[in-house]
Amino acid sequence: MDIMECEKYKEQGNAAFKEEKWDDALQLYTKAINSVKGEPKELAIYYKNRAAAYLKKGEYEKAVNDCDKSLNLCPNDPKALFRRCQALESLQRYEEAYRDATQIFKDDPTNKPIQPYLQRLHRIVEERAQMNAQTSKKLESMLKIVFDPTNDKEKRETAMRNLLVLARENAGSEYMVKKSPIVQKIKNLLKIEKNPELYVTGIRIIGELCKHSEELTNIVLKDVGIPWFLEIIDSKNEEVVSAAQYCLQSILNSLSGMENKQDSKPKKDLVDRNQSTISSLLTFLTVTINHRAISGLARDAIIELLTRNIHYTTLNWAEQLVEKDGVRKLLDCASELQEYHYESAMNITPSTRTIAAVCLARVYENMYYDKAKENFLNKVNEFIKEKLLTPDVESKVRVTVAITELLRGPLDLGNSIIGKEGILEMILVMANSDDELQQRVSCECLIAAASKADKAKTIVSQGAEILKKLYKSKNDHIRIRALVGLCKLGSYGGSDAAVKPFADGSTLKLAEACRRFLLHPGKDGDIRKWAAEGLSYLTLDAEVKEKLVEDKAALKALIELAKSGDQSVVFGVVTTLVNLCNAYEKQEVIPEMVELAKFAKQHIPEEHELDDPDFVTKRILALGHENVTTALVVLSKTESPNSRELIARVFNALASEHELRGVIVQQGGVKVLIKLSLEGTDKGKRQAAQALARIGITMNPEVAFPGQRALEVIRPLLSLLHMDCTGMENFEALMALCNIAQMNEAARQRIIKEGGVPKIEHYMYEDHEYICRAAVQCMCNLVQSEDVIKVFFESENDRMKFMVSCCLDPDQDTAMAASGALAILTGSSEICCKKVFDSKNWLEAIQCLLANKSPSMQYRGVCIISNIINVNKELAEKLMESNILEILMALKLLPDEDGSRKKINSVIDEILKVCEKYGIIKKPEEE
User: Fold this and answer.
1) Which residue range forms the structural domain that includes residue 884?
2) Phi and psi, residue 322, nearest 5°
């Protein structure tokens, strides 16, 4: 293209830049760059101009790249150097920024704009040089101790911990990676180190070095390579596996721009730049899913890593995993059985199948369009077809186990598979065989398949007799599974007291049988897990709930089972707890619809009398006093969103009782609730947020949410100020926010930053008395912040008018809060004092405050008057033109029997003195 055309794009870009239209400027400069043929001198100008636009947008890496290109064409160009210097400083690459600033100064010592940069960068570079010298000495000393095996064990451990502390600092990690051989030294040390503490700390150091920046992460990966992490994570030591898992997540976070926060998301530009490495990491994780040689703990950690990151659309791991044959590999894990333990068998833990099922569910959730879902289903069908081509017992068993896990994970997919011709019949034949393993796995599959009423009815008609027969088996593992199958079939009526699939009394008998398995001495974890699952179905029956909650031994056994950390117990234990608390979602009963159903002779669900609120409260208190919170904290490590929702429901039920809120805080429930309120299902997040609100209402927030947690809890509380939430949720959130807002300025600033002030203000206009009151009280605490006053009350709006009107509210507490807010606003802002008179009701509001029976309200009223008259004479005269002075004099004459009027009279005296100074009133002798 003609150079004149390129110049035209440049000029248009310059015009857009002057108008601060950065995106338009970028597009026009890019057009100019792309239109140039060859490398004329004008190209250097286009690049440095585009760099200026990138600087304005805060895209510093791109600005540096464009400046580099400009300087290649036109070395030592002062503008390109200056812009690169600014970008490098913003990227904290101070030494490089100082290099550019120095070059500019050398070429033009009279250049004034560069001088402040030069001075500032010189100071920073000097400080960093001193720090690096100190770091170098420390590092050299620690390396000598750590990597010399002849040194004392305690000295080596202390030195290694000190290295970990140094790695957590930005400057320390940068020095360690760029200017020391520590990464290679740790890699070599871990090949021979036998001390477990040194080994784990070494891995953690690598994790911290990868945590700080994309650049350092790439250097570390170049030194050790991704396959090295397979060697490290392959351990039977839980601490080692956890540390290696943390390393891998830190690498992914640094390369994709995520942070270790619940709401953090990948950044597209970073992901695009590191696509090759991120893709290699996914390949590495996918290949190792069903690797035969790795430990069960390592396998679980790898699948958990996939589960945590699979839903990020920017990473696009879900579809890639399907393409890389990840579905088959996950099904391999989900169908693995300890009974077939050949040399080539995988090592698994009791949690592996559950973790694999959760991962399959998460992948399936991310198949957003029909073609992707079809591809996923094809992979599952290929796996089942491949297994069933070999007509041996093992193949049928593995297929049945895989279907069971699909029913526990992506349920709809599992139902579609079991609905295929011949699959359910095959499972029923296996259940009716004499082979104990076939009986066991078919029982498990029938239990999982009876999730919906239509399936349950089919299995009741076809499989109930088989399950009863299996319950007579001599093998306890078969008996407990058959028992759970019967429990599930007996519970498909849910909490409807009118539906009884089995004869009266059968449910209690089944519950007693489950209890015996749960408590029987010497029973292994597998049997106790199934006993808990049986109770999870039976506790929909109110009579079973009452029986169980009175059985302290059974409750303790249930809680101890949860504390084991086995992910496969989560469903059984948590569902039982949800049922005991009646924390499940209840369908709203509309009286008109009930009458219509009666007229149409349709079935109407009935609630059992033992599910009345008094009985539910008693059950919740019983669970709380048995320290159920400790179990919930352990169970919350699950990656299943549905299980997290159930855990949040139990927490919320516990938090509904005042006396249990302190127990939740004491046993670490708040940390878990904050996490649950930020990730998972929408209903689960609401339940967790409401539990936090309830804790924040009755407990001192500094005790309930110590340190940083008081700020972290603000976002969940604000999420309850939404039209989709109930009035109770709105009210409780406002009350908790009110308490937090009075803590300190940091809390108020966080509420402002999270957009909380407009949300709280919205509820000040609510018709509901309690909600309106809570919102006004919350605003009263928020106006202690100068920023709230400046942004929300001093600007052009009617907020001051509304606050004056609230002082006339018939609800005494609302008026009290509004008058308190008005006293703070008028005491802090002259503008707010003037805006009081914008309200037509200003005189009536002040008169009502002064005439109120409560000394507290009167005190607020005289404070407001004092604040206004202290602004200037004009406002004072406006006030005193009314009968305010007479009311003040009358207040002074009231008897002060209990000393409560001392403060009021003191403020009135000050008001009179100011009025006297203005000449509005005179002393009697002067008159």
Assistant:
1) 797-927
2) -65, -45
Check whether 499 has a pLDDT greater than 50. no
* Residue 440 pLDDT exceeds 60: yes
- The owner of tokens 């044959």 is 325
Q: What is the CATH number of the domain that holds 47?
A: 1.25.40.10
HSE (side-chain half, CA atoms, 13 Å) at 6: 20
Q: At what angle do helices 613-625 and 628-635 cross, to 10 degrees?
A: 80
**Counting beta carbons within 10 angstroms of the beta carbon of residue 522, is it exposed (0 to 12), middle (13 to 18) or buried (19 or more)?**
exposed
Per-residue burial over 584-598, b if 16 or more Cβ lie within 10 Å, else e, is eeeeeeeeeeeeeee
Phi and psi at 148, nearest 5°, equal -105, 105
Burial 153-188 (b: 16+ CB within 10 A, else e): eeebbebbbbbeebbeeebbbbbbbeeeebbeebbe
Tell me the average pLDDT of the chain: 85
pLDDT digits (tens, 9 = 90+) for 892-912: 888 877 777 888 888 888 888
Asked whether residue 274 is assigned to any structural domain, the reply reads no
Residues in the chain, overall count:
927
Prediction pTM value: 0.71
Helix or strand (DSSP H, E) at 629: helix 628-635
Q: Buried b vs exposed e over 433-459: b needs ≥16 C-beta within 10 Å? A: eeeebbbbbbbbbbbbbbeeeebbeeb
HEC letters along 675-706: HHHHCCCHHHHHHHHHHHHHHHHHCCHHHHCC
Out of 54, 81, 111, pick the residue that ends a domain.
Answer: 111
The answer to whether residue 215 sits within a structural domain is no
The last residue of a domain, from among 82, 111, 140: 111
Rounded-to-integer distance, Cα 479 and Cα 482, Å = 5
| Residues 827-846 pLDDT 10s | 888 899 988 888 888 888 88
Task: Provide the H-helix boundaries in 502-562.
Answer: 506-519, 525-538, 542-549, 552-562
Q: Which of the 8 DSSP states describes residue 587?
A: P
Between CA 211 and CA 218, with CA 215 as vertex, the angle to 5 degrees is 85
Q: How far apart are CA 505 and CA 346, in angstroms?
A: 44
Q: Could you give the number of structural domains in the chain?
A: 2
> CA 401 from chain center: how many Å?
33
